[in-house]
Design a protein that fits this description.
Elements lengths: L8 E3 L1 H8 L4 E4 L2 H6 L4 H15 L3 E8 L2 E4 L3 H8 L6 E3 L4 H6 L4 E3 L1 H11 L3 E3 L10 H4 L4 H8 L3 E4 L8 H10 L4 E4 L18 E3 L2 H14 L4 E4 L10 H18 L6 H12 L3 H28 L1
Parallel strand pairs: 1-4, 2-3, 2-7, 5-6, 7-8, 8-11, 9-10, 9-11
Antiparallel strand pairs: 3-4, 3-6
The protein binds pseudouridine-5'-monophosphate (PSU) and manganese (II) ion.
């Protein structure tokens, strides 16, 4: 918390108490709620993620910025306020948070924003849907998500179903290698493909269970200052068909090009076009995978708390 004035960071009582004891807290992001999923599914998913973290044996801390304050553990009411389209909450990456506080703004935190706050308040685990990464047009756009650099700077374990399939997955895995961020599959040696259980890329490391994940992360933290990515695939029975996925992807990339979007608009536009093209099927898959990731993060965080003592 050293980087913030106390008055700018509000940690809810339950989260603060848990951080003093077992530290089995899981951070949840809000960009997926505000910019990533359509209403009203977005708030349902946020609630389901919190419940899933609890079922896994940990306390959820959904993070966002309201009226120039970082809230660690938003109430249901605060989350509704943040998600209200009339609030026009900004999408906050790690670099934006100080500015949002100084200007008394509202904002939803990305993975990058969330883990930079989480690590400063002592939260070591977070869950998301698909990590950000290197975009397919990177040679022209230089567009690479700050999620990657944030993971290289914060000792936080992130559970994700791989990286979003709108990205250049191979290039993203190479960047994670360069940045010193370990990538392990949970009960799989295949890197998950976000809307699909497999991306076509294999992994060097496979975790057998939550305890192994906890021990690997804590051992990593003794030796390195970087984060840790755990890939948790969607159940193959629920995945989007390859054929529909590929058609939706072409349409989404085309649409983003036509609109001429750049910067932080790119990912929300691509996800929204996926939702439109698949008539909501991609939203349903996104919901299932992010809730499953929250549940696994809850179990891993509980296992870390056990191993740490
Ligand atoms: N996972 C999802 N949906 C999302 C995101 C992740 O299933 O909307 C969000 C996360 O907040 C992630 C962000 O950090 O997308 C990546 O945005 P960008 O590509 O602009 O860095
Ligand atoms: Mn970007």
């Amino acid at each position: 918390m050293t980087n913030f004035r106390n008055s700018s960071v509000v940690i809810n009582d339950e989260v603060a108490n848990t951080l003093e004891k077992g530290r089995n807290v899981v951070a949840l992001e809000t960009t997926i709620v505000v910019q990533g999923l359509p209403s009203p599914v977005n708030l349902e998913v946020a609630e389901e993620c919190e419940a899933a973290v609890r079922e896994g044996g940990s306390v959820p801390a959904t993070i966002g910025v309201l009226d120039g304050r970082v809230i660690v553990g938003l109430s249901a009411e605060q989350l509704r306020t943040l998600a209200d389209p009339d609030r026009h909450a900004a999408k906050l990456s790690a670099r934006d948070i100080g500015l949002a506080l100084a200007t008394h703004g509202d904002g939803a935190t990305t993975v990058a924003g969330t883990i930079s706050i989480a690590s400063r308040v002592g939260i070591q685990v977070m869950a998301t849907g698909g990590l950000g990464g290197v975009h397919r047009d990177v040679r022209d756009s230089f567009d690479e998500s700050a999620d990657l650099t944030a993971l290289s700077r914060n000792q936080v374990l992130v559970v994700a179903s791989g990286v979003k399939s709108i990205l250049d997955i191979g290039a993203t895995l190479e960047r994670l290698d360069t940045l010193g961020v370990p990538v392990a599959g949970f009960r799989t040696d295949k890197f998950p493909g976000f809307y699909q259980s497999e991306s076509g890329f294999s992994l060097d490391w496979k975790l057998a269970n939550e305890t192994e994940a906890a021990v690997a992360f804590l051992s990593h933290c003794e030796l390195s200052a970087t984060g840790f990515l755990v890939g948790n695939p969607i159940d193959p029975k629920s995945e989007l068909s390859v054929e529909l996925h590929d058609r939706a992807l072409s349409s989404a990339l085309e649409r983003a090009k036509d609109l001429g979007v750049s910067g932080k608009e790119v990912t929300p536009v691509l996800l929204a076009e996926f939702a439109r093209y698949t008539a909501g099927a991609s939203v349903e898959v996104n919901r299932q995978l992010v809730v499953a990731n929250a549940a696994l993060a809850g179990r891993i965080s509980a296992a870390i708390a056990k191993e740490r003592v």
